[in-house]
Amino acid sequence: MLVSLRPSVLDPAGEATRAAAARLGVEGVTRLRIGKAVEVELEAPDAASARERLELLSDRLFANPVIEDWSLELADPAPEA
Amino acid sequence: MTLGVVVFPGSNCDRDVQWAAQGCLGIETRFLWHEERDLSGLEAVVIPGGFSYGDYLRCGAIARFAPVLQEVATFAERGGRVLGICNGFQVLTEMGLLPGALTRNEKLHFLCEPARLRVEPGACAWLQGYASGEEVTFPIAHGEGRYQIDPDQLQALEDRGQVVLRYSRNPNGSVGDVAGLTNRAGNVLGLMPHPERACDPTTGGIDGRRLLASLLG
């Protein structure tokens, strides 16, 4: 699950890191935004219900929709033990 | 009059609030551990500053699910007086009792200094001891105090008189110079500055006294 600041929200940490990129000598970095990634392992009967639970978690806990956007990526389910 | 003071793992202004309320003003206080659910006998609740649950994930994001806060939400809905200071303000926005969010200070610095504020008490029960347009000094101490909300929603808050405290000189990049907000009913107040640190003359000023003294009617 990836959380990023909404485009309209200033990201001072991203701006500071962008300045450091220039000091490292890497030119041409015009935009740098810092978000976070959450890795979750979840047991669910099927992919649809797994997605439903992850969406709830993303929207109500991992991200604050007032300032953040989120996106989900589901990996292949673990093989049956 | 008994004031409840919520204590999370990581709260660090709970005793400051107790000293300000009980030590300076004689208001009886009772600490409410985060797992507690009994708010009986309380006339008001303070969610104090600090770093609730380490502020992991986002400031206030985990605190929002604390058992005591489920009760505080009901208490507020019934008109009970709730005050969120600093981390407490962040918690109130995460709970949805106040709109918007608090984000990283514009210049990234942790700010620890006195702040001049302009008060517009409106209907806010906590601020009735202050005159409209009055300037006061409360200390600030935060790294994530930049208030953020959509321009339309900010305008709506302004129109309804909910922006009750503004920085005279904006220290952190908050939209609209917002330092503190009240809810529509005026019983809930959230603010980044620390009124409880402006109650004892030995700490440099007593501008915050009238905020807590509002509980004495």
How would you describe what is shown here?
The complex is a heterodimer of chains A (81) and B (217). Chain A is α+β, with helices and mostly antiparallel strands and 81 residues long. Chain A has one domain: Mth169, Chain: A. In chain A, 35% of the residues lie in helices and 12% in strands. Chain A has helices at residues 12-23, 47-62; strands at residues 2-5, 36-37, 68-71. Chain A has a three-stranded antiparallel sheet, with helices on one face. The model of chain A has no long low-confidence stretch (mean pLDDT 91). Chain B has one domain (2-216): Rossmann fold (3-Layer(aba) Sandwich). Chain B contains five helices and eleven strands. In chain B, α2 (67-77) links the parallel β3 (44-47) and β4. The longest helix of chain B has 11 residues, at 14-24. Chain B is 21% helix and 27% strand. Chain B is globular. The chains are: A alpha+beta (81), B alpha/beta (217). Chains A and B meet through α1 of A and loops of B.
Q: Percentage of helical residues of chain A?
A: 25-40%
CATH top level assignment of chain A: Alpha Beta
Give me the side-by-side strand order of the main sheet of chain A.
2-1-3
C-alpha Rg of chain B (nearest Å): 15 Å
CATH topology call of chain A: Mth169, Chain: A
Shape-level CATH architecture of chain A: 2-Layer Sandwich
Number of helices of chain A: 2
What is the typical, i.e. mean, pLDDT of chain A?
A: 91
Number of strands of chain A: 3
The biggest sheet of chain B amounts to:
9 strands, mixed
CATH superfamily of chain A: Phosphoribosylformylglycinamidine synthase subunit PurS
In short:
Chain A is of the alpha+beta class and 81 residues long. Chain A has two helices and three strands. Chain A has helices at 12-23, 47-62; strands spanning 2-5, 36-37, 68-71.
